[in-house]
Design a protein that fits this description.
single chain, alpha+beta, 7-stranded mixed sheet, 4 helices
């Protein structure tokens, strides 16, 4: 098996990160996005902490990051997960390793709730999140239209930190 490394994402990773994001967009069940934003827009919309990449055999195979769901102080410990694994690396357990690392990093950074919105056709993502301790909170019916105009449902999943005030809580 190839050597697996999980490390913080750097701006220099953007080329590989954006290619993997585009592969996710192309599936039409990973996101409602229809194109990858430029790095500056992506960078501005995601927290600086808890950006991770996973490398398999020295090749960037996937990435994950957090997005604050609400700027208000009361929600400072709640973030939404983005996780993508490159097409050629799917089905080998890398998503589990990456999401597990993200959950640990998020608790260390003080996040008490992680949430993820999973499109109705993405059973693999629902299973991955469940394996990493996320629970199904609800199903939002006909919440948005995809790029073909078809109404889709999404599943809202969340994971609570083990402690009400995780390690990095005071830093948030």
């Amino acid at each position: 098996m190839d050597k697996i490394i999980i490390r913080p994402m750097t701006p220099e990773d953007w080329g590989a990160v954006s290619r993997i994001y585009v592969e996710g967009i192309a599936t039409e069940y990973a996101t409602f996005q229809t194109e990858c934003p430029p790095y500056t827009a992506w960078d501005a919309s995601h927290t600086k902490a808890c950006r991770l990449v996973i490398l398999s055999g020295g090749v960037l195979a996937g990435w994950c990051a957090l997005h604050r769901i609400d700027p208000r102080w009361c929600y400072r410990g709640v973030a939404e997960v983005s996780i993508y694994v490159g097409e050629q690396f799917r089905g080998h357990g890398l998503g589990f390793r990456l999401l597990s690392a993200l959950c640990a990093a998020a608790e260390k950074a003080g996040y008490w709730t992680l949430q993820s919105t999973v499109l109705q056709d993405n059973a693999a993502s629902r299973a991955l999140h469940a394996k990493c301790g996320f629970r199904l909170v609800g199903r939002r019916e006909r919440i948005a239209r995809d790029c073909h105009g078809r109404w889709l449902d999404t599943y809202l999943m969340e994971r609570r930190a083990a402690a009400d005030e995780p390690e990095g809580f005071k830093k948030l």
